[in-house]
Design brief:
The protein has one domain. By secondary structure, it is an all-alpha fold. The protein is globular. The protein is built from six helices and no strands.
Length: about 200
Amino acid sequence: MFEHPVAQWGFTLVFVLLLGYSAVRAFVDRAKPVQTIGHALHGVMAADMAMMSWPWWMDLPGSPQTLFFSVATLWFLGMFVLQAGGRLPRRIFGGHGAAHQAAHVAMMLAMVWMVVVMSGSQPSQGGHDHGSMSVLAALTGVVVVVALLVSGVIFVVEFADCVRGAGKAWLGHTGDMASGAVMCLSMAAMCLPMLVQ
């Protein structure tokens, strides 16, 4: 995806740090199954994003990744529906609201889109270049990037609220906001070159 080593190593470092954060949170929240599953799904996503920075990622099979991130999307969509419908309380999600679950849906859908487009499993319109993509794929990509940017901004605003009200927010909640913002904005930055090729 990226040919410049600074970009490759920069994105790799960001996503490895996010993987580490997800692993720590999964361990800390191990007695809370819903949160543990969410952290584990984000850990896999961060690992895949770190690898996606390198050309050899293209040699990895796309179908298992697409299946995994599709299931992860459905998981977070289910959590969103249950929480928005009042069937699951905020405490199960570490104090996060339904909008937080919607942001996770956007991130997992972005993974599905990136894997499908980059692995070449979507039809192009007559071009033989790997960088060519169908109009539908390009429009979907624009929606994905906008959703990631909006989610990233929401996370930044919530992070600022956590920092201002340090007495009310606990470290994990604040860290979740920061890591969510970094994840969304970094994913958007990795998607943009795919749309402008």
